[in-house]
Specification:
Distance between the termini: 26 Å
Number of strands: 21
CATH architecture: Sandwich
Strand content: 35-45%
CATH class: Mainly Beta
CATH topology: Jelly Rolls
Radius of gyration: 18 Å
Structural class: mainly beta
Order of helices and strands: EHEEEEEEEEEEEEEEEEEEEE
Helix content: under 10%
Oligomer: single chain
Largest sheet: 10 strands, mixed
Number of helices: 1
């Protein structure tokens, strides 16, 4: 496992101003925007359901929503010890194609929702063909190519109405794309807007990064968005700069979600803890007391990274070895 060197760690809480965001949470459109080797990890074993969940001593790994029979809800116990948790769901990418009962592809440039550039001035056109499975690894291909008036293509997929999670530990082992204008993300949005539109119902960014390798900088960010509906929303997060090159090897990005605390890790090392958030529509711990679904994508350009330039090398890839969800015992 590659050891982390913490060069800079700073906390920020600022207002986000983005007038197009109001509808994003309903559509799942907001772009947030393992351990140091190339070998795929072994597939773990998920135990059979043992009942419980929702605060009991045992998780309920397959709690199917009666109003939405395609949706599996994982209402987990918080994880306080990685040596005392149970795997309740995982995507190991062991098949030859993505399971449509788990993953949904978002396509285009957002204009079908009135959000051209996905609300962030992004430059890519999302295509289903840009996601593939190669020897047990999900690969998102980021290409410089013309498609529907755009000059770049990529892929974006999510589990909305299929897999939703509350509490526990959510992690992925990933290798990230490099270069100016690259914006990879592993994040979560609410299955339902229980407390209002973005960001009153919350957003969880488990890992996002921009412009990795530019000026030899390698930063990852972990963030939560909350507060009122735009423009009364805020976000709080931490930015971690490390010496490892997370575009060359796989590293594990993990998020532990408790009722009153959230924690972010890279390769098992804690770099951020949050215990304070709010929404005006309900008491703490809202809005992060509801179920959230998982998203994986790579944007090109946009408000956060800026556009690719002459130094950006194409094609790029984001590779995902697994996505796993655990419940505390």
């Amino acid at each position: 496992m590659t050891a982390l060197s913490f060069i800079e760690l700073k906390d920020y809480i600022v207002k986000r101003v983005a007038p197009f965001i109001v509808l994003m949470s309903l559509l799942g459109l907001v772009a947030c925007g393992g351990g140091g080797s190339d070998a795929p990890s072994p597939t773990p074993t998920i135990p059979p359901p043992s009942g419980g969940g929702g605060g009991s001593s045992d998780p309920d790994p397959v709690n199917v929503n009666s109003e939405n029979p395609t949706l599996k809800l994982f209402d987990n116990n918080p994880v306080s010890d990685v040596n005392n948790m149970t795997l309740v769901w995982s995507e190991e990418f062991d098949d030859t194609r993505l399971d449509p009962e788990t993953w949904f592809f978002e396509k285009g440039d957002g204009s079908q929702y009135g959000l051209t550039g996905w609300g962030n001035n992004e430059l890519q056109w999302y295509l289903e063909d840009n996601a593939r499975i190669d020897n047990g690894i999900l690969v998102i291909d980021v290409k410089e190519e013309a498609s529907n008036g755009r000059n770049y293509t990529s892929a974006r997929l999510h589990t909305r109405d299929r897999i939703a999670v509350r509490y526990g530990r959510i992690e992925a082992r990933m290798k990230l794309p490099a270069g100016q204008g690259m914006w990879p993300a592993f994040w979560m949005l609410p299955q339902e807007d229980a407390y209002g539109t973005w960001a009153a119902s919350g957003e969880i960014d488990i890992m996002e990064a921009v412009n990795l390798g530019v000026n030899n900088e390698y930063k990852v960010l972990g963030t939560i968005h909350y507060g009122g509906e735009w423009p009364n929303n805020v976000f709080s997060g931490n930015e971690l700069e490390v010496t490892m090159d997370n575009t060359v090897d796989f590293h594990e990005y993990a998020f532990e979600w408790d009722v009153d605390e959230m924690r972010w890790y890279v390769d098992g090392q804690l770099y951020s803890t949050k215990t304070n958030w709010s929404t005006p529509n309900a008491p703490f711990p809202a809005p992060f007391d509801e179920t959230f679904y998982i998203l994986l994508n790579v944007a090109v350009g946009g408000n956060l990274p800026g556009s690719p330039d002459s130094t950006t090398v194409f094609p790029q890839t984001m590779e995902v070895d697994y996505v796993r969800v655990y419940s505390g015992n």
